[in-house]
């Protein structure tokens, strides 16, 4: 009975709004900021806005784990690898959502470049696949995503990103199941003394605007406290980050009023 209930919840969660692998965002720092992250640059920009990779100067990598609503079948694991070169920055990402008879996978290869002192742009090629309980084989499709970031001042940044603008999807026996495009736009302001404020709006053709806000407070250089809110329905998030040398560990928690708590952790290293 418990397994049937779990799978029922999983099915509703995955298909109620949009295909989740297309919108499975990774990185515990971003989760703690309610994923209001479209203009922020770090190792996990491979999942949020690849244009953020253009300003990264070091080879870096990260791993991520999330237990969505504390349900094992809704676990999400991801990884990222960032390689700066003379021509720009390459980013590789992968993720798996689900466990057991239902799984979603996403693999992405990105290239980001500084166009001017104020503009960065990027494109990423993706392959998404799913394994459904009723199918022996996984089915998949290819698509792309792209983004830009604009530095209005040294402290104020704006970003825009679109996933699957061609609305590609799965070829099912009953026809093509199109996956809606996801458009995100937002920004952040870095106050001179320890505080980062982020904001973002997300939109799909079938759903209303989703507003997200986050704040990060760093009392010392290697420690950060984070809080976020998004909705409707209103979801809350919080987390903490700690750095030692080139290693950073982030822990994030999201809370949904009806479905409960989502803990996550990510570890990043810059070489």
Structural overview:
The chain has one domain (19-270): Outer membrane protein transport protein (OMPP1/FadL/TodX) (Porin), CATH 2.40.160. It contains 3 helices and 16 strands. The protein has helices spanning 2-15, 28-32, 45-48; strands at residues 60-67, 75-85, 88-97, 103-114, 119-131, 139-151, 156-163, 169-172, 175-178, 182-190, 195-204, 207-220, 223-231, 235-244, 247-256, 260-270. A 14-stranded antiparallel barrel has the order 1-2-3-4-5-6-7-10-11-12-13-14-15-16. Strand 1 (60-67) and strand 2 form a beta hairpin. The chain is globular, with a radius of gyration of 18 Å. Mean pLDDT is 87; it is low at 1-22.
Sequence-ordered SSE layout with sheet pairings:
Layout lengths: L1 H14 L12 H5 L12 H4 L11 E8 L7 E11 L2 E10 L5 E12 L4 E13 L7 E13 L4 E8 L5 E4 L2 E4 L3 E9 L4 E10 L2 E14 L2 E9 L3 E10 L2 E10 L3 E11 L1
Antiparallel strand pairs: 1-2, 1-16, 2-3, 3-4, 4-5, 5-6, 6-7, 7-10, 8-9, 10-11, 11-12, 12-13, 13-14, 14-15, 15-16
Q: From the alpha-carbon coordinates, what is the Rg to the nearest angstrom?
A: 18 Å
What is the H-and-E element order?
HHHEEEEEEEEEEEEEEEE
In CATH terms, what is the fold-level topology?
A: Porin
Share in β-strands: over 45%
Q: What is the terminal-to-terminal distance?
A: 48 Å
Q: What characterizes the major β-sheet?
A: 14 strands, antiparallel, barrel
What is the overall silhouette? globular
What's the level 1 CATH class? Mainly Beta
Helix proportion: under 10%
The count of domains is 1
Q: How large is the count of helical segments?
A: 3
Decide which structural class fits the backbone. mainly beta
If classified by CATH, what would the architecture be? Answer: Beta Barrel
**Strands in their spatial order, largest beta sheet:** 1-2-3-4-5-6-7-10-11-12-13-14-15-16
Q: Which regions are unreliable across 5 or more consecutive residues at pLDDT < 50?
A: 1-22
CATH superfamily: Outer membrane protein transport protein (OMPP1/FadL/TodX)
Summed over residues and divided by their number, the pLDDT gives a mean of 87
- Count every beta strand, where a strand is a DSSP E run of 2 or more residues: 16
